[in-house]
Amino acid sequence: MSNKAQQTVIHFTPDAIEVSYSVFKKTKTNGKIICYIPAFDYIFSANNEGEIKIKSEAMIASFFDYFEKEESFKSLIVQIHKMGFRSAQHNYVMSQLLNKKPVNKADMKIVNSVPKEFEDAESMFHSSKYKMAG
Predict the structure, then answer these.
(1) DSSP string spanning 23-68?
(2) Where along the chain do its domains lie?
(3) pLDDT tens for the 134 residues of the chain, in order
């Protein structure tokens, strides 16, 4: 199955962050759905597909909200780097983002392996946009 590795992309624009990511889901015998977001190492449960979308978007939003409200944009960039996200011309892009300077293409990507317990899970692709304060 091609679910073994999935790419997550964080795209920075002047006023927003767009995130494209995969959610893996497995249905347990009791009907509960167990979900996993590899790039952020989040595991959660849901009752249906609609709830998966709502919960996954809320969890990803909480990650960015934390850095916007409790830390700083610079801390966010450093954390994304620590998590393994990289871009083409990574050093240049990091420097531009850390200094809040415009950059033509600021796509930070990571390819995550999926844990053994989710190797046979179904993959769903999600994309979300988050407004950032200036």
Answers:
(1) EEEEE-TTSPEEEEEGGGTEEEEESSHHHHHHHHHHHHHHHHHHHH
(2) 2-131
(3) 344 557 899 998 877 899 999 999 999 888 899 999 999 999 999 999 899 999 999 999 999 999 988 898 899 999 999 999 999 889 999 998 898 887 776 889 988 878 888 888 988 888 888 886 55
